[in-house]
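Running this now, will post back.
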Amino acid sequence: MVPAERKRHDRPPLLLHAFPSFAIGGAQVRFAALANHLGGSYRHAIIAMDGNYECLSRLAPDLDVVCPGIEIRKGDTVRAVFRFRRVLRDLRPDLLVTYNWGAIEWAAANALPIARHIHMEDGFGPEERAAQLPRRVLLRRLFLRRSTVVVPSQTLLGIATRLWRLSPERVRYIPNGVDLGRFAAPPAGAVPPRWPGEGPVIGSVGALRAEKNLARLLQAFHLLHDAMPARLVIVGDGPERPALEALTQTLGLAGAVHFAGHVADPSPLYHSFDLLALSSDTEQMPFSVLEAMAAGLPVVATDVGDIRAMVSAENRPYLAACDDTGLAGSLGGLLADAELRRRIGAANRRKAEHEYDQEAMFRAYAALLDGNRGRGAQA
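Update: finished.
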């Protein structure tokens, strides 16, 4: 072995991560938690297709992380695939990790394998909330058939094996996990904020994107507000914020709805909420629901993805159809009864402790990154 080769093999393995965006979101936060947990065991090269690297703030400062400058042009798919293939040859990563549909060009670039490939699929945008797009199904089937595909929900597991026709031996189900200690109580010295207004506080945590349908939550809140005073706190930012703020004014809710914006660490805020609300058109295994459960909160949510399986049995009656009236009904039932909220929150916390400790998630991902493909799909 020549000295340069020896030096390369003496260093920790290099993982090349291709994200559609490295803005703060579920997949990015999970990666940051995992990378911090693994510490110096790996080096990381991170590429954000949209140039947004906001989630770098979640990574420990002592990690070995680079963000290679790569020219990315929308609508230039064929050239991009060849350009990304050159990047793979130049960087020679030990593992390519791609995240969701927005990074499929990297999977295509590795179709004739240069590096071992793991694809993480967390869900779909608004364009696929009702049905899978046939072209995307075919490309996933083509470019992921030799890869290991990881999904956090049973819903996605079924889609990957039945619709995309990927071999069950190549699809891994790894549920998301949560830092139970971090959400059990506010950090020492931290004082949860006091939100102006009267009544219980409904919290919403997540990116303000179209598929999250926060307009539905505002409309449902409006249906209740005159008869049942309450407050709504929306934590997060995104392209839908101006429209949501305008709708808040139109509905006459300006004094009761508070836009908290982006919060780097929302964990203390959960202790200022009486319940969590989620009004999405599409989800799989949302971190905000796990975090609310770890904080001992009840959840009102649209009945999408794996949410029904995630929450406690006591909480399931408060999952709603994807409409304003159904969501309002579920909200009203919990807003009116503080003791019911306490009981359901305690049941959710117990379920999080038994099933969603992030240490189990870390072990599963560590084995996967080390090359242990296990037995394929796991129920």
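The chain has a mean pLDDT of 91. More later if anyone needs it.
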